[in-house]
Amino acid sequence: MSVxxxxxxxxxxxxxxPTxxxxxPTxxxxxPTxxxxxxxxxxxxxxxxxxxxxxxxxxxxxTTTIAQEQLISYINDNKVVGLLVRSATKxxxxxxxxxxxxxxxxxxxxxxxxxxxxxxxxxxxxxxxxPAASSESVAELVFAHLFxxxxxxxxxxRNMPLDGDSKFKQLKKAYAKGTELRGKTLGVIGFGRIGxxxxxxxxxxxxxxxxxxxxxxxxxxxISFFDGQTVSFDFKxxxxxxxxxxxxxxxxxxxxxxxYVIGKKEFELMKDHAGIVNAARGGVxxxxxxxxxxxxxxxxxxxxxxxxxxxxxxxxILMQPNxxxxxxxxxxxxxxxxxxxxxxxxxxxxxxx
Length: 353
Ligand SMILES: NC(=O)c1ccc[n+]([C@@H]2O[C@H](COP(=O)([O-])OP(=O)(O)OC[C@H]3O[C@@H](n4cnc5c(N)ncnc54)[C@H](O)[C@@H]3O)[C@@H](O)[C@H]2O)c1
Hints:
The structure is a single chain. By secondary structure, the protein is of the alpha/beta class. Helix content is 37%, strand content 18%. The protein has 14 helices and 13 strands. α11 (264-269) links the parallel β10 (249-252) and β11. α2 runs parallel beside α14 (334-352) and α6 (135-150) crosses α9 (193-205). It is globular and about 65 Å long. Bound molecules: nicotinamide-adenine-dinucleotide (NAD). Nicotinamide-adenine-dinucleotide binds at residues 109-111, 131, 134-135, 138, 189-195, 212-216, 253-255, 257, 261, 279-281, 305-306, 328, 330-331.
């Protein structure tokens, strides 16, 4: 998916009036004017599924992207009751204090670092998010990085356009020492929604799964197959140190932390030529230590979807040849965006109607 196709989802505009109530007005049942509709501003976009669900219940969904510094006056001028954001728009105290019509702030996705959640709730606003909607999408992206990593796709895709016609045999040789994921051990650090969704794919691929999560001592993961069969696996958390020593591949699925979860000390514990993926949050892995262990070939490859310095990842990270890079697209699938839209709509309807 290109950046443009991502922004297509984000910037989809919909200026149509709601069409669900086409009845002629009667004296008892007046056709609402636009002013009677409760206005929801989806400032970072929302999938059409969410717009449709909200419009059916008499909300008007505004999808124009308003610049951060103009948000307060736009919300007040339009009497917006619900502000929906992803990660771009910041909802800080200034907006919460200055917008008296605002009743709800919604985040399409998980992390709410861009919202002053406690303050908003203190002021009586509803603050909602959609924590489960994108777990499978992120888990699939982790495996895109892992499958790509063990067969050098990140590098082949850089070099084939340049040298594929003149140095085909050399490139074939350069990428000849691939490995399989089947039979290897995946270490999952953080065994919440995405960690468990990733474990399910790993089990389907034939990997052994181990996990470390100080807050989830044991977990039962159930995989549903297309024909209705389900298979369950029971797991027990182990220490991060034991996980790092045993895993062939490590993937981190923890929330943002004050300290690095993987730094120099942790890399040293890892198996030689292991692979690592971070599709959680920038700052969970120490990028300086990562570049060192990749340069020294201690670690074979890394897959990164998130960066310490987003939206301007460090050039050393971007140029390191053994990193498979994506620009924070873990949740950027049509399916996840549809689920996010529907989940937001259903929460808004039950809270504001
Ligand atoms: N790449 C993307 O686009 C994308 C999309 C969605 C979510 N995310 C990120 O993925 C991460 C995980 O999301 P989730 O929905 O699975 O969250 P979750 O809350 O369901 O799971 C997080 C787990 O991490 C555990 N944990 C916390 N600190 C830990 C530590 N130091 N060591 C080990 N485990 C620890 C918690 O106990 C919890 O079980 C979050 O950082 C989220 O922001 C990224």
